[in-house]
From TrEMBL:
Residues 1-24 form the signal peptide. This is NIPSNAP protein. It comes from Lutibacter agarilyticus. Keywords: Signal.
């Protein structure tokens, strides 16, 4: 009997361990992350810069996990900066990223001469569980991005708020938003990015009443105002920018 009991315990433990490993592998295989690098071209060299980056991407970053594109910041203090984006990829993929002499020499010879300044380099992981694709097109022209500073110790409250917002979006059946988590926070107010995709500036003038109605249908009258209090309690600052997507 003791042997049988020990066998059952060992079997259960093995099943639990296997399930845990499989789940971890699935999470590792399915997540998507983008590496982004900010660049400011020299004045008067913007077109040459964009053309050089396009040629480099076509040669070394045309497809797969290392596919790259270039966006342009249109609003805020970083207006005029460009953002080079590679991915979606995983950290494991980075061990095999293009990094040979041909790649480096092409960048140094053709792209760098047009760059006045390099800025931040960050890794943003897409949070599928908290995002709502909704009616977003596969190739939007613009994105309205909120970089959010989440208060220390308040990640759980922020997450609960976003989960409820997603439920309201799903109930309403309109709109879209994506959540990205910064993988290396620096205490600079860029912990989470909330991204809304759109195709025309006219969409910024549309007033569809927001999600308050759908939110309160789910969580009850007055719940939206209470949720906004949770938002204020869990966040410090927001830096909002509009990016033009895929300029090259």
């Amino acid at each position: 009997m003791k042997t049988t009991t020990s066998f059952i315990v060992m079997l259960v433990f093995t099943i639990m361990l296997t399930t845990s490993v499989v789940t971890a592998q699935e999470e590792k295989e399915t997540y998507g992350m983008a590496e982004i690098t900010y660049m400011l071209p020299k004045i008067g060299m913007e077109k040459a810069f964009v053309d050089a980056v396009k040629a480099h991407n076509d040669k070394f970053h045309k497809e797969g996990v290392f596919k790259a594109s270039l966006d342009n910041i249109l609003t805020g203090k970083e207006t005029g900066w460009y953002v080079w984006i590679m991915g979606p990829c995983t950290f494991s993929d980075l061990d095999n990223r293009p990094n040979d002499d041909a790649h480096s020499n092409d960048w140094d010879k053709n792209v760098s001469p047009n760059v006045a300044k390099y800025g931040r380099n960050e890794f943003w992981r897409y949070n599928k569980k908290l995002s709502y694709k909704g009616d977003a097109s596969d190739s939007p022209k613009y994105e309205n991005i909120w970089f959010v500073d989440v208060k220390r110790g308040q990640n759980y409250k922020f997450k609960e708020f976003i989960e409820k917002v997603k439920a309201a979006y799903e109930k309403k059946g309109e709109g879209n938003f994506s959540i990205y988590n910064n993988q290396f926070t620096e205490g600079n107010g860029r912990d989470v990015a909330i991204v809304w995709a759109f195709d025309t500036w006219a969409e910024m003038d549309e007033d569809d009443g927001g999600i308050k109605g759908a939110f309160e249908e789910i969580y009850g009258e007055g719940s939206w105002n209470n949720a906004l209090k949770d938002w204020e309690a869990s966040t410090e600052t927001i830096n909002s920018q509009v990016w033009r997507i895929g300029v090259n």
